[in-house]
């Protein structure tokens, strides 16, 4: 799983043309590269064609992850989040050259299904009856959502199970990582927050259980806790400030019987309770047993940008998605071959006043965005800028065709649009070597030219987005539209 809003997934499925479950990938119009791989690809290309000029000083590895395999043995996944993880690395040598590599994460699931030539286990959005015993959450682990490099080791992440370790140089799969013997097999979300000193915070949820991890820059778990939370079907991301971890627990329940019996996918087994509150769980980083729960109107969120403490006020931002019934309605409409309307996910800025009863206020904006990103130097600290893919002058058409920088204090924005034929993925902020000011760096991410059916990476000066990309790097093949990535300087 799981990224972008379900609206995005649904529209992606629509764009790709999936009215039914039969496998017709080759015949479908390719408005998004979602089913361009077959499972045995090992992609390598160097040097890549560069349009424009790569900035001097851009040196390191940009790792990305996303669902790569959507069909096997005549069966096709119905949900973008389902596909097996395909990890990519773009290497920048600092002298104007770039190479690309892509490998499937060789999870236990992928290897077993490749041997059998068919899907064997349920997926997040596709109800496949289990054809082998499900031993634990890792039986379904597709390792497809994001990456983390911690203490020189690289991991492919999926929120329902273990992190899968990869060789950072070759992208070959080394296997699932047990952080400690006691934490083996525990869920490790795809949205760890890596602080400027190298400390990573992460969490995992399974029903009423939540696990929290604090991992040192050296890669050791220095603190962890397992505790009960108000039950919710899915927690994708969280926010971290100097002093707190903040979770928004949506009013989502899960029909476990339907799921277990293979009658419903996880998506279809989820129920939204719009009259119930979203619970705001606040955990003290210094003492994980100090926890507090506040309430706010029902809200669904996939992604947070960042958070910081301003005295006794936690300030944070997130992207608000739709309520689940709307998402499910649209899913069914798409399966009938209809074209539902789009409903954008939009930025929110939230203040939690901790004094007294805990007052929450939220400021809304209306740009269509997802995949918020901040400068890695300000994670869990005061910050002033958030960057997003965004839709610019697309009308009711789905997708992100541009990028936006938003000033947190003034609300001022700067944008760039590629045009209606390009879809833009998450772009990360890469600090310029030697710089110290927030946002001083490059915005780096991938995209797809739907007219020419070409995948590319683009590099912007993050403080001059409107000037357009400094460089575009064209791949000689199509790569799948992905979720999240991180850049690590060499
Ligand atoms: Fe995500």
Please bin the fraction of helical residues. under 10%
CATH class: Mainly Beta
Q: What general form does the structure show? A: globular
What is the CATH H-level superfamily? YVTN repeat-like/Quinoprotein amine dehydrogenase
**Overall number of strands:** 33
Assembly type of the shown chains? Answer: single chain
Report the mean per-residue pLDDT as an integer: 89
Q: The CATH topology, please?
A: Methylamine Dehydrogenase, Chain H
Q: Name the beta content range.
A: 35-45%
CATH architecture term: 7 Propeller
Radius of gyration: 21 Å
Major sheet: size, sense and barrel closure?
A: 5 strands, antiparallel
What's the structural domain tally?
1
Strands of the widest sheet, in order across it, are 1-7-6-3-33
Give unreliable regions as ranges: 1-30
User: What distance separates the N and C termini?
Assistant: 29 Å
Architecture blueprint of SSEs:
Elements: H1 6-16, E1 42-45, E2 49-52, E3 59-69, E4 71-72, E5 75-76, E6 84-93, E7 98-104, H2 108-116, E8 146-150, E9 153-157, E10 164-166, E11 173-176, E12 193-194, E13 200-206, E14 209-215, E15 221-228, E16 239-240, E17 244-249, E18 252-254, H3 256-260, H4 266-269, E19 270-272, E20 278-284, E21 287-296, E22 300-310, E23 313-321, H5 324-335, E24 346-353, E25 359-364, E26 385-390, E27 402-407, E28 413-417, E29 422-431, E30 441-449, E31 454-461, E32 471-474, E33 484-489
Antiparallel strand pairs: 1-7, 2-32, 3-6, 3-33, 4-5, 6-7, 8-9, 9-10, 10-11, 12-13, 13-14, 14-15, 16-17, 17-20, 18-19, 20-21, 22-23, 23-24, 24-25, 26-27, 27-28, 29-30, 30-31, 31-32
Bound molecules: fe (ii) ion.
């Amino acid at each position: 799983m799981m990224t972008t809003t379900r609206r995005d997934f649904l529209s992606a499925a629509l764009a790709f043309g999936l009215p039914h479950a039969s496998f017709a990938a080759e015949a479908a119009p390719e408005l998004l590269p979602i089913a361009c791989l077959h499972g045995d690809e090992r992609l390598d290309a160097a040097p890549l064609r560069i349009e424009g000029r790569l900035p001097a000083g851009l040196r390191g590895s940009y790792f990305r992850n996303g669902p790569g395999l959507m069909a096997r043995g005549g069966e096709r996944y119905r949900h973008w989040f389902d596909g097996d993880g395909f990890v990519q690395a773009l290497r920048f040598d600092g002298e104007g050259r770039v190479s690309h590599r892509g490998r499937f994460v060789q999870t236990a699931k992928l290897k077993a299904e490749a041997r059998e030539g068919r899907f064997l286990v349920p997926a997040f959005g596709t109800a496949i009856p289990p054809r082998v015993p499900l031993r634990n959450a890792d039986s379904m682990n597709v390792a497809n959502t994001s990456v983390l490099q911690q203490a020189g080791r690289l991991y492919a992440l999926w929120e329902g199970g273990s992190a899968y370790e990869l060789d950072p140089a070759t992208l070959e799969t080394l296997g699932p990582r047990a952080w400690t013997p006691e934490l083996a097999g525990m869920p490790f979300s795809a949205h760890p927050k890596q602080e400027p000193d190298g400390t990573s915070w992460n969490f995992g949820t399974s029903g009423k259980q939540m696990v929290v991890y604090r991992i040192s820059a050296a890669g050791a778990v220095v603190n962890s806790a397992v505790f009960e939370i108000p039950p919710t079907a899915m927690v994708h991301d969280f926010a971290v400030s100097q002093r707190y971890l903040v979770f928004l627990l949506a009013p989502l329940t899960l029909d476990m019987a339907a799921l277990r019996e293979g009658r419903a996918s996880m998506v279809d087994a989820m129920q939204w309770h719009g009259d119930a509150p979203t619970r705001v769980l606040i955990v003290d980083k210094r003492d994980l047993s100090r926890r507090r729960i506040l309430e706010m109107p029902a809200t669904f969120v996939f992604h947070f940008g960042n958070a910081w403490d301003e005295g006794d006020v936690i300030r944070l931002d997130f992207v608000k998605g739709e309520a689940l019934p709307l998402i499910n309605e649209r899913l069914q409409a798409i399966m009938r071959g209809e074209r539902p309307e789009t409903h954008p996910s939009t930025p929110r800025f939230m203040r939690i006043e901790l004094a007294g009863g805990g007052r929450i206020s939220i400021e809304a904006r209306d740009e269509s965005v997802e995949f918020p990103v901040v400068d890695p130097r300000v994670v869990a600290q005061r910050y002033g800028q958030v960057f997003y893919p965004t839709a610019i002058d697309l009308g009711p058409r789905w997708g992100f065709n541009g990028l936006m920088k938003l000033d947190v204090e003034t609300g001022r924005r700067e944008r760039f649009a590629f045009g209606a034929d390009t879809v833009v993925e998450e772009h990360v902020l890469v600090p310029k070597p030697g710089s110290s000011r927030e946002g001083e760096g490059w915005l780096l991410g991938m995209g797809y030219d739907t007219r020419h059916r070409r995948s590319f990476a683009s590099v912007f000066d993050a403080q001059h987005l409107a000037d357009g990309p400094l460089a575009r790097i064209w791949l000689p093949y199509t790569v799948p539209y992905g979720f999240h990535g991180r850049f690590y300087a060499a």
